[in-house]
Amino acid sequence: MPLELNPSQALGLWHAVSLSQVRSEAHDLTLRQMAILLQIYLVPPPHTVRGLAATLNVTKPVITRALDTMGAMGLVDRVRDDQDRRNVIIKRTVAGALYLEKLGDVVIAEARQLPY
Amino acid sequence: MPLELNPSQALGLWHAVSLSQVRSEAHDLTLRQMAILLQIYLVPPPHTVRGLAATLNVTKPVITRALDTMGAMGLVDRVRDDQDRRNVIIKRTVAGALYLEKLGDVVIAEARQLPY
DNA sequence: TCACAATGATACGGAACCGAAACGGTCGCG
DNA sequence: CGCGACCGTTTCGGTTCCGTATCATTGTGA
Fold first, then answer.
1. Tell me, which fold does domain B7-112 have in CATH?
2. Does pLDDT of A116 surpass 80?
């Protein structure tokens, strides 16, 4: 049985989590960066710049720059593909997994506190 | 009975909605702008710049600028308070309500398609 | 009345991000 | 070998956002 939300729950959840993110985080991720990070961690590898750009419907430099930023934060890692050295394989990191685990906790906690 | 999500559902939902937002919208809102918009529409009025700044834990100029941007998009409106003319009351608009209604539809649709 | 507090807006310098275009390194194929 | 295609990165000019500090307007209370 699928997860059924009513409009109030849907917006309420989005509101609560957004608010939590804005309030807590010193430097939060862009919506695009967040989408990239989630794509990397929730979809089976391998992930490439080109593939992410196509999936998110953005240009390649957007991906490169987002990986620069999140790489500096330790949330992702980049490795050259030895089969085809033109490719770059985006790797997950422990810090990235932890970051998303916390995000998941926030979503779960806010969902639980939602009026129903 | 509260809304119980498991970690996979929580992150999957956030992933799907973020992806949908990034893919579709030419001009998407900042996380802060989104939080402000949801606060205005989901919490009973009146809303002031100062109040929003305190709730979101950001400085007042952040609110003013976000209202400038979203005001230009027609998502919110500003009216001087006649009781205390120092205050500015932030008003909802039809366009803003429609915008959030669509967002809610996306959340609901993605939740329904979630594996469970 | 008149200093002072409060509110929202603005000025300013700096940082991050964007899209388009160009670039270097790599592969594939004739 | 050579040339074109492909991949990720970088450069460029421009826009947006940020934080701090300051401003104009309005209310408050001695």
1. Arc Repressor Mutant, subunit A (1.10.10)
2. no
